[in-house]
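dumping this here before i forget
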Amino acid sequence: MPCAFLAEKQTFDRRSVESDNCGSLSAQHDWVNLLQRGDLLLLLYAELRSPPVGGGLGVRMGDLGATAIELFDTHKHYVSTCVPVRMGTHPDGDHSGKRMVGSVANACRILNVLYDHGGGRVTEVAEELNLNKGTVHTQLSTLREYGYVHKSDNVYFPSMRFLEIGEGVKTEMEIFRAAEDELKELANTTGEYAHLMIEQNGWGYIIHKEKGDRAATTTSRVGKKLHLHYTSTGKSILAHLPPERVDMIVDRHGLPKRTERTITSKEALEEELDEIRESGTAYDRGEQINGARCVGAPIQEPDGTVLGAISVSGPESRVSGDFYREELPNLVSSAANVIEMNIEVDRLNQ
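structure:
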């Protein structure tokens, strides 16, 4: 606990931190250990800045608490330079001032770099994130110890632990259990790919797909993160989210252009979402991939809350005419309805 840790330091030589470089700091007083325990110092700092009503840590520690605040305010630039305590950049570019634990944020950023770049050496990751090599090495060693990265020829990679966790999470989701057989049926009936998507943090994630016997090669894969506005599943979800949630997603993630047919204006998106709510189905008319078409439908609770969406996708040459405008929408909507019923039955049987 911060209080217990600091209570042992009843004397504090303020001159011990009056140094102008990171190296000399680390060689001085024991209090510098606090700077190397960045999360501890951040927690203490937050507690002292906003002590509980009626006292709390700051009051109990008296002058020591006030000194710790002064220490952080004066030398926080050393902390962010020497140890992994900077508040970090939100992965979605959100700078709303939410409190984050710096070392955890840095671990997440490091994992993102390893994933985005197909692995990396300590120096490469440090340069990418503007962190010192010691911090990155410590983080990677810890992640490796816990099985979240593996190392080959001094290059670090995300480990298969993520696949284990992801598959475990997916198989426990009621929407996956309810949809798996229906997706197989859709793929077999149409000969094309059938997908299941859910929304988290404003992104669409494909959590399952089934391949028909005629399915064309596609860029979609299980676990892939997508913008919601250019897929039929994503638009099915957006159409049934509260308007303020849609606004937040668009403001945060934007409406990037994938093809010449991608919707890139908020007004055009709102018009299409109105049409989706009216018809019950959504269309991707080559908005994600040129030459590909998709038809999607939402999966909803009885009160209208959207749980996810399913779709069937295929090349324009086959997904066209009455099949595209009538038969496929009916097949997808019917499958979505069965999935909704499966979820209700599963809940009743629990």
